[in-house]
Amino acid sequence: MGRYHAASLAGYCPSAELVRVVDADETVAQEVGRDLGIEWSTSFNDLIKDESIDAVVIAVPTSFHADLIIEAAGAGKHVFCEKPISLERQPTVEAIAATRGAGIKLQIGFHRRFDPDWAAATSRIRAGDLGEVYLFRTSLRDMKPPTMEYIKGSGGFFIDVTIHDFDTARWMVGEIDEVMAFGAALSDKAFAEVEDIDNALIFLRFHNGALGVIDNSRVAGYGYECSTEVMGSKATVRVDNPSRVHMQWLTPGQAARAYVESFIERYPIAYRAELEQFALAVCDDLPVPVTGEDALAAFDLCTAAHLSMQQRRPVSLRHESGLHGVAYEMAGT
Ligand SMILES: NC(=O)c1ccc[n+]([C@@H]2O[C@H](COP(=O)([O-])OP(=O)(O)OC[C@H]3O[C@@H](n4cnc5c(N)ncnc54)[C@H](O)[C@@H]3O)[C@@H](O)[C@H]2O)c1
């Protein structure tokens, strides 16, 4: 992701100037710096001491996010950080508090909010064009899993993957009162060996009464799928997965369509737009469109899903609107 974000900043974000790339691995830092024709280094500490720099984009493994956010906040740098903020709740809360305390902006990488299709659907739902929402359904399926090394450090399937869907559900439909999750390790026993899963179904009851279902897979095989449907009293909206090419290959009894292979291929516009929006928020002192509190809410919903799967029961949640966003709490735990 870091490589991709650096390239987006270098070529597609007119409000930002990419100054330097940092990677703990010198070979990676050097290669990205050379490819983009910019400075590189292996020291995050030197980067945040540089007074000419306004903001940093953090896309290191999740276990390092919170510490780097807190260091950047201490140096007065605005932060864009990949999801999730941390593998644990407490560091998530501390990182958010550090940015608030320092008066710097923190935006989290829920890129789907910046995709033109998802944004258009959500804007019409919010305008009331769909009427009362009855059903929300969404699929997020990777074609193939990342490395086991990545999975071991990912915090588990819900926190690594479903977190995007919980954010989408809150954004499109509203807050969530109840979660029931099922998960299984089906494609490779290596998932079970690291106490993780590769397929999941998560059922939702929204505060407004709507029902929802999320399906997730690490092993879809046919391609990368990210699609949704929201059914309401006046209309239904579907955001489909675009094909790699706009061609269908027809033979008797068959219509073949080439799915995209990855999130990078599906979301180039969204990944660029989220960084441009962040840069604009920094330059013009505007609120960021996706906050640390949004990431905490989605994290709490992931925790509820995990608990539900482990204990084989629905988990109820309470939520309350505050000054900076909505805070979740598990009811009865
Ligand atoms: N929003 C999305 O769609 C999306 C997609 C993939 C990954 N992510 C998130 O991006 C983050 C990174 O994932 P990835 O797949 O790129 O991981 P990765 O392991 O492929 O890359 C991480 C890079 O960080 C470097 N690194 C590790 N520790 C460092 C440190 N302390 N300081 C500087 N560099 C360090 C590594 O050398 C490596 O080059 C994760 O938090 C993940 O959840 C988000």
Q: What this model shows, in words?
A:
The protein is of the alpha/beta class and 333 residues long. The chain is built from 12 helices and 15 strands. The longest helix has 20 residues, at 292-311. The mean pLDDT is 96. The chain binds nicotinamide-adenine-dinucleotide. The site of nicotinamide-adenine-dinucleotide has 20 residues, from loops. Nicotinamide-adenine-dinucleotide binds at residues 1-2, 22-25, 28, 44, 59-62, 64, 82-83, 109, 111, 150, 160, 263.
Shape category: globular
Which regions contain 5 or more consecutive residues with pLDDT less than 50?
none
The separation of the N and C termini measures 36 Å
Bound small molecules, deduplicated: nicotinamide-adenine-dinucleotide
Reading side by side through the largest sheet, how are the strands ordered?
11-10-6-9-8-7-14-15
- Main pleated sheet: 8 strands, mixed
Could you tell me the radius of gyration in angstroms? 20 Å
Please trace the helix and strand order, writing H or E for each element. Answer: HEHEHEHEHEHEHHEHEEEEEEHHHEE
Share in β-strands:
25-35%
Number of strands: 15
> Which structural class matches the secondary elements?
alpha/beta
Mean pLDDT: 96
What share of the residues lie within helices? 25-40%
Q: Note the total helix count.
A: 12
